Amino acid sequence: MKKYLSIFLIISVCPIFSQNIKIPTDTTVVTLHTLSIKNQVISYQATTGTQPVWNEKGAPIATLFYTYYERTKTDKKKRPLIFSFNGGPGSASVWMHIAYTGPKVLNIDEEGYPIQPYGVKDNPNSILDVADIVYINPVNTGYSRMIADKEGKLPEREKFFGINADIKYLAEWMNTFLTRINRWESPKYIIGESYGGTRVMGLANELQNKQWMYLNGVIMVSPADYKLYNTSQPIYSSLNLPYFTAAAWYHNMLPSDLQKKDLLDILPEVEDYAINKLMPALAKGGFISYEEKQSVAKKMSYYSGLTETSILQNNLDVSTSFFWKDLLRNKTGQTIGRLDSRYLGLDKTEAGNSPDFNPELTSWLHSFTPAINYYIHEYLNFKTDIKYNMFGDVHPWDNRNDNTREGLRKAMAQNPYLKVLIQSGYYDGATTYFGAKYTMHQVDPSGKMKDRFTFKGYRSGHMMYLRKDDLKKANDDLREFIVASSSNGQAAKY
């Protein structure tokens, strides 16, 4: 009888205490921690919470979830502050947060593969010793959400989901955040991964010219430049050839004379061929001579590990998706990863022009999803029933009027302090390292600011920091860049 009575009470009482799931619009939770970085124990404060996005009438239309790490007992005026974004568009700021620059990293093996039990561990390579960091989740990612008005109507999606809308509201949010934490005097940086590269190129100009917030540095990690992707120009596929070489070298698919060389000894000659031979050949389209087409196909095969036949069947315009499917087709029958081509996948059939799934992304979601949920609740003490969106609904995304490259150039021209660092993995087949170099070359056609750009490459993929050796190297490169972009008391002038 007691058993049935208990069930009845639960059924009867639950509706009384149930409530709609929603995220607080404006709240903070503060926790204190310590971490050993480079054999030095540092104390830091973690503030996690939400801060509103307001419309022109001052009403909240969204709230953004963030985590702010601040080293204690330091001079905030001199200490750099870094705003960190991931990409997508539609990705939470989770990847760099708990795998790269933050105080905790995933429980993974030395090459980045999942290990159970899932979770996090101390990151002795974190840049928190030299800079404070705030990880920002755009609308519909992480716990960030749109807010309905009094009538229950959500704001128009166009206010958030597009290249220029995204840049505008995030810049305004950053202005408010900077004022709240009283960090206007600090040296300021923005870092963006993948689509975040497009985002921070645009933010550099928006922050300076609309928010009057001047930066010391812009950091692009495996940047996605939509000036390359949103075209139908076959010539841009030439930029993929050096990546093909890197991935083929990793899987031992190059001819023996290349395979026995170190990767970094091969790539410069492939880059030269891609720009000076392959790109002009592709520009000729169907009017290329038979002899030249055969010659280019032979050289592409030599540098890519693909057969001349498959290259000719694609009219020299080989897509990355075909490469992921075809490279190992006749060797192991496996596919290779899109974002990191060291990863292997198994398709239903070996036939076809593209893989069934991305093996690297499934591996990453395997380890990141449980870790970030556990970390936020247990370490940062932020409690909510809202689902943490690793990827959120941000579509349709408006890609029109992409002037982000020019925005970065303009910001650099106006600000003699501003320097740029680009970090890319050689095995990234989604935002290839040579595509990132091409973007770097195109930002300032005059070449007058090229000494303010730095490129760093790593023997891993899109998230180069998942590989233990590159986690250390990439963070050290960030430290070096922060030092190099410091004003050191010098005036901002030419």
Walk me through the topology:
Layout: H1 2-17, E1 27-37, E2 40-54, E3 60-71, E4 81-85, E5 104-106, E6 120-122, E7 132-136, E8 145-146, H2 163-180, E9 188-193, H3 195-210, E10 217-221, H4 226-229, H5 241-250, H6 256-259, H7 263-283, H8 290-304, H9 308-313, H10 320-326, E11 335-336, E12 344-345, H11 359-378, H12 404-414, E13 419-425, H13 433-443, E14 453-458, H14 468-484
Parallel strand pairs: 4-7, 4-9, 9-10, 10-13, 13-14
Antiparallel strand pairs: 1-2, 2-3, 3-7, 3-8, 5-6, 11-12
Q: Mind explaining what this structure looks like?
A:
The protein is an alpha/beta fold and 494 residues long. It folds into two domains: 27-228 and 366-484, Rossmann fold (3-Layer(aba) Sandwich), CATH 3.40.50.1820; 235-360, no CATH class. The chain is 36% helix and 17% strand. The chain is built from 14 helices and 14 strands. It has helices at 2-17, 163-180, 195-210, 226-229, 241-250, 256-259, 263-283, 290-304, 308-313, 320-326, 359-378, 404-414, 433-443, 468-484; strands at residues 27-37, 40-54, 60-71, 81-85, 104-106, 120-122, 132-136, 145-146, 188-193, 217-221, 335-336, 344-345, 419-425, 453-458. The strands form three sheets. Strands 1, 2, 3, 4, 7, 8, 9, 10, 13 and 14 form a ten-stranded mixed sheet that branches. Strand 1 and strand 2 (40-54) form a beta hairpin. Helix 3 crosses helix 12 and helix 7 packs antiparallel against helix 8. The termini are far apart. Mean pLDDT is 93; it is low at 1-18.
